[in-house]
Enoyl-CoA hydratase/isomerase family protein
Amino acid sequence: MEAEGMSDVVSEVRGSAGLITLNRPKALNALSLGMIRDLTAALLAWRDDPRVERVGVRGMGKEGPFGAFCAGGDIRFFHQAVLAGDPRLEDFFTEEYSLNHLIHAYPKPYVVFMDGICMGGGMGISAHGSDYGLRIATERTKMAMPETNIGLFPDVGGGWFLARCPGRIGEYLALTGQLIAGADAVAARLADGVLPSAELPTVWESLADGERFERVREALRAAPPPASIFAARRADIDHFFALPSVPDIVRALEADAGSWAAETAALLRKRSPLMLQVTLEHLRRARHMTLAADLRMERDMVRQCFHLRPGTASETFEGIRALAIDKDHAPRWNPARIEDVTPEMVAAFFASPWPAHAHPLRGLG
């Protein structure tokens, strides 16, 4: 066994496995640019290393391994970078999206332990695992793509993997930012199975031995799917979230007499009206794209999030301010109402600032 550093990312080779631990528990393992670079370096080093037959990724919780996977990208860094004009903000998204694609195309089983919180950027390093990898949820899993709450859109390939959820579950999760549990993640095809969190240390140890791990994987994939909230709400979700536009969705929800519809409409009214509509357009475009093409589109979109309205005028800057900096939970969205967003406002996010030959993600795919 060889371990490298007690930094925010700890990597080691044990038996025939490469093991990665996200080691920033006080920040719920939120991804910094340094962590993205360390993750990428480890995966690239092991991709062609004959000693490494599979890769495992877990998060360090406040009380030890597991308990928290990854709360997303470091949004406090985004806020500081905007104020300082820090060019590393551009590097962050280019390198994060490149990492997402590397995981998607990884030639070895990629096993991720989505115990505890798994949101945003944490989904980007978990949802893209290959068919012969394993995405493990637990009874403690708290999964979400909550970007519309901070004036952003579900990035890290979120358009691609949410668009491939059954029915209109992806639109529902993308627009509302709703938190779901492990069983719901399996139903949404964002996890492969649910294990009791008490079993995770044993499964982690099994990664070092190919035969032991194969037994674990077969047992988890063969287990009957756990009960999910989507079983009861699937018809409603598919009905409302298939409607052509966000105003159509909200009007229909508000016209419905049911409590679920009213609660869902009220939730949508709290999100960024502009980014709700950008997000819906994003998912519907991504449904017909490869992941590489979606990530290139997302790179265009995130550039526009910070530069269409530069600096503190950015919808994303304002959303982060309200949620994580001032914590007043009173974002001043612009426009303030869903009904005031124009098609031209939405279209601007999909205009690439780069020609194809100079795009920062031109090498993907």
